[in-house]
Amino acid sequence: MKNLSKQGKLMTKQDEVIKSQEVPMSRRGFLGFLGKGAACTGALACTGAAVGSALVSEPKHGFQQNDDQLAEAVNNPPEIPEYNWNDHNWAIGVDTDRCIGCLRCMEACKMENSVQMDAFHHRTWVERYTYLEGSNTAIVDSQSDPKNIEHAGSETKFRFDNRYKDVKVDKSFFVPKLCNQCEHPSCVQVCPTGATFKAKDGPVLIDATYCIGCQYCVQACPYGARSFNEVRGVAEKCNWCYHRITKGLNPACVEVCPTGTRIFGDRNDPESPVSLFIKNNHVQVLKPEMGNSPNVFYKGTDKEVV
Length: 306
Description:
The structure is a single chain. This protein is α+β, with helices and mostly antiparallel strands. It has a single domain, classed as Alpha-Beta Plaits. Helix content is about 25%, strand content about 15%. It contains 10 helices and 10 strands. It has a 3-stranded mixed beta sheet with strand order 9-1-10, covered by helices on one side. A 3-stranded antiparallel beta sheet has the order 3-2-4, covered by helices on one side. It is globular and about 55 Å long. It starts with 12 loop residues before the first helix and ends in a 7-residue tail after the last strand.
């Protein structure tokens, strides 16, 4: 018989393991354990999922791992170098002229952060913008488009089809999307419990021990960067692989990009890759009129990209 949580929700195997080992956790403890959970971090070669999204067992942890990684993190926590979030101001640049729509970023993110393996749950994704000959309006599709799912042959594989091979196209390009880690995040403003908060080094994080699943943050995000995990009953989003960047590593999506489309770095360092990217290119942010002040800077996007 399947085990159920106190709310009557189906518990996964990870949920059951976490529940049996659960101890109360403070906000500081959440951040600390988020770091400790990176025992396999740096290991995109590690099989299974690493740290990231939240579990919904009663009470809940602010991370998710497979069983072996959980045991490693609990029984043999790595020594974590001193990290002071007051010293950093993280940002990401996206050079859309380089993106080839391979979707390796999405696959790596799912592996690294235990994101549900279907085309509709994601923390990062890629959109294709296509202008047919004589049209001033872009046709937009992504990995969740039914034709792309059919072309991939499975909802757990992510590919763009070649639907425009027999059509005259003026231009077509790919645009990676992810959480913008805004300076003035709408999600933080509407969260009634403080589960969503902005860290001093830039990323907006979710402490699942406080999340009540109201989904106000999902509705408030103007970029569609948040989703709701129905199984675990909590909101989820990209956190730029916070468990990795606090160890001096790149986010998983940046690490695996074969063309250098994504550029990550510290804006407090004028010589960091992202600082130089912003300095040397004409960049823009998505939906500047919303007043959120995003920290993802795009080069080469069209005016219709939102």
